[in-house]
Amino acid sequence: MPSPRRNADRRTLAASASSSSGPGSPAHGGGGGGRFEFQSLLSSRAPGADPTCARLRASESPVHRRGSFPLAGAGPSQAPPGPLPEEDRLDLNPSFLGIALRSLLAIDLWLSKKLGVCAGENSSWGSMRPLMKLLEISGHGIPWLLGTLYCLYRSDSWAGREVLMNLLFALLLDLLLVALIKGLVRRRRPAHNQMDMFVTLSVDKYSFPSGHATRAALVSRFILNHLVLAIPLRVLVVLWAFIVGFSRVMLGRHNVTDVAFGFFLGYTQYSIVDYCWLSPHNARVLFVLWNQQ
Fold first, then answer.
1. What residue ranges carry the coiled-coil annotation (predicted)?
2. What is the pLDDT of residues 138-188, one digit of tens each?
3. Which contacts (CB < 8 Å, 24+ apart) does range 187-190 have?
4. I need a labelling partner for 28 at 20 to 30 A (CA). Which of 65, 90, 175, 286 fits?
5. How far apart are CA 243 and CA 237, in angstroms?
6. How large is the angle between the packed helices 141-154 and 211-226, nearest 10 degrees?
7. CA-based diameter of the chain, in Å?
């Protein structure tokens, strides 16, 4: 039969062992809580375990609170952000062509403003505006169309009618192409321009290309190729074309590139007219109808 003292010692040892194996025992360094959470996670993976309880236990884990691994059932807000769209990205390496075009545009605007010495009455050459506007009228399309129609009506020779018919065709082609390009490009006129033009149409609020420059280049090349003129008169025709184009910049109507492209377009238009030359052989019906009038 055991003694009462021995039974008391056994109860004291059992109590000390149970207290040392508790969850917050310093002897184990607080590791009992970790084993409890690990066992709870294992029990959540067991067959037949409640998934809601498993997620709650996992969310209470200190590992999850530190964000060491993503939660399998996380919502859309936990998804990583996608790539930015193209329009929101900063282009740090622009192309050489883009830089060249921007530089050319800046030079064009600066030079056009410097050369617009007749843009207003208070400009440095404001007193020259009447002469510049006279040159503007000399290169306008309406006087050239009306003059060509009148000469075609008064002509009594087939050779003269052939030349005038093709000049009329060239003027109509010029109006069509210039209006088409202006409607496509839609470049505004210079800011220092005063809209006091001779006659304006809907497309005349746009600047690129210069219709006066295209018409001057077209008409001057047409005259030099189909009229017999002395050398001084031929020089005057070329000078008239260049002065008409330059006056557009001086009046502030156009930029320098508008006039330069206008000269190129007018020179090219004559090549089109010369290739599609209208004559009694390939446009007999047109000449017969005009002769009956």
1. none
2. 999 899 999 999 998 888 888 888 899 999 999 999 999 999 999 999 998
3. 187/258, 189/252, 189/253, 189/254, 190/109, 190/112, 190/113, 190/116, 190/119, 190/252, 190/253, 190/254, 190/255
4. 65
5. 10
6. 30
7. 157
User: For residue 62, is the peptide bond before it cis, meaning its omega torsion is within 30 degrees of 0?
Assistant: no
**Can you spell out the DSSP letters for 202-244?**
GGGGB-SS-HHHHHHHHHHHHHHHHS---HHHHHHHHHHHHHH
Backbone φ and ψ of 190, nearest 5°: -55, 150
Note the residue count of the chain.
Answer: 293
pLDDT band at 22; cut points 50, 70, 90: very low
Residues 6 or more apart in contact with residue 221 via CB below 8 angstroms: 266, 267, 270
pLDDT digits (tens, 9 = 90+) for 84-119: 555 455 555 568 788 888 888 899 889 988 888 888
Please give the positions annotated as active site.
Answer: 212, 254
Q: Which two tokens stand for residue 273?
A: 């007219």
Which tokens sit at 167?
A: 């000049």
Residue type, 177: L
Average pLDDT value for residue range 212-230: 93
* Contact between 118 and 250 (Cβ < 8 Å): yes
Looking up tokens 């007219």, which residue turns up? 273
Alpha-carbon span 143 to 146, nearest angstrom: 5
Taking residues 220-224, what's their average pLDDT?
94
Q: What is the DSSP letter of 87?
A: G
Mean pLDDT, to the nearest integer, of 125-138?
Answer: 88
Letter for the amino acid at 234? R
Residue 166 near residue 192, CB atoms below 8 Å: no
For the chain, the straight-line distance linking the first and the last C-alpha, in angstroms and rounded, comes to 152
Helices (H) and strands (E) in the chain, counts: 12, 0
